[in-house]
Write a structure and sequence with these properties.
single chain, mainly beta, 16-stranded antiparallel sheet, 4 helices, 16 strands, about 65% strand
Length: about 300
């Protein structure tokens, strides 16, 4: 039988989210466009709103194999003020331009002999200002990760693997290292290096607190003409985001969360498809900015979740 302390810790750990709605806003910040072809200009971003909806659903739940599917929709818009060059194309045509992401994902975990396991992740999304079937493969962005790991004890996992994706704004392959450890009833640490570090404190079943730092990036295919002479472009960006999050149970299956964080841009540019930053048309220098995120989400009811895990 399991250690009773471990069982108590398991009950304190967060249950998985299966439906989530997020609303995010960034504080005012300054951006500067730098381009040999279009010149330089700066502006104040006085509104950067993001709406995000996600759903996850089980496909296979067996003792040694878990396969989870997911769907998502993300929508982002900008509003500018104090534009130094009023006709500067970047700011003029990005005003209220939506950046949309329609995504599907799959998470597979399979247990192996001798407490080993492997984990695979696949995400495919249409990233564009106007997602459509035309230029489908230019809009299609895929990320994959594979991890081979070991369950050291009931509280600790270690592993390593490879990831391909857009965390740096442009396509890149890099190694992964994971380390998950529940130190005691209330504290846990999750490392997915170099992508994220998360420290969790759960004082009870109804409250969870997180201190996190994460590397996040994306690439969007722009189909409406944004810059004169270019009918198709890529908007690429990447940032590091340290943040603090609190999650609170409203009802057994209904939770809310709030996050305050700091976005530190590290790589933003516009280029033709297939080109990297060295061949960018416009480089974008953006100030770091505070951001606030509010989420409401559903989790499996406690009794149902505990029964599924024990079964």
């Amino acid at each position: 039988s399991k250690d009773p302390i471990f069982e108590a810790a398991e009950r304190l750990k967060p249950r998985p989210k299966f439906i989530e709605l997020e609303f995010e806003s960034l504080n005012n910040f300054t951006v500067r466009g730098i381009s040999e072809q279009f010149g330089n200009a700066n502006a104040r971003v006085n509104q950067n709103l993001i709406r995000n909806a996600k759903i996850k659903f089980p496909i296979i739940l067996k003792k040694g194999v878990n396969l989870i599917g997911g769907l998502g929709y993300r929508h982002e818009q900008f509003k500018f003020s104090r534009i130094s060059e009023p006709d500067y194309a970047l700011f003029e045509r990005f005003e209220d331009k939506p950046l949309k992401q329609i995504s599907s994902s799959f998470y597979l975990k399979k247990n192996l002999r001798n407490d080993r396991f492997y984990f695979a992740f696949l995400n495919s999304s249409l990233n564009s200002d106007e997602p459509q079937l035309e230029n489908f493969f230019d809009q299609l962005k895929s990320s994959v990760a594979f991890i081979y790991g070991m369950q050291v004890n009931p509280n600790k996992q270690v592993g390593y693997g490879l990831s391909f994706g857009y965390d740096l704004g442009q396509p890149a392959v890099f190694p992964l290292f994971i380390y998950n450890n529940d130190f005691n009833l209330h504290w846990g640490l999750e490392l997915l290096l170099p992508k994220s570090i998360k420290l969790r404190y759960s004082p009870s079943n109804q409250w969870h607190f997180y201190a996190t730092s994460e590397l996040k990036g994306a690439s969007y295919h722009l189909q409406d003409e944004v810059l004169d002479g270019f009918d198709q472009l890529e908007f690429r960006r990447s940032s590091v985001r340290p943040n603090l999050t609190v999650e609170r149970e409203i009802h057994d299956w209904l939770w809310v969360g709030g996050t305050m964080g700091y976005r530190i841009p590290i790589n933003i540019f516009i280029s033709e498809p297939g080109e990297n930053r060295r061949n960018s048309i416009i480089e974008i220098d953006a100030d770091a900015a505070l951001y606030f995120n509010f989420s409401i989400f559903l989790v499996p009811p406690a009794k149902l979740y505990d029964k599924a895990k024990s079964g």
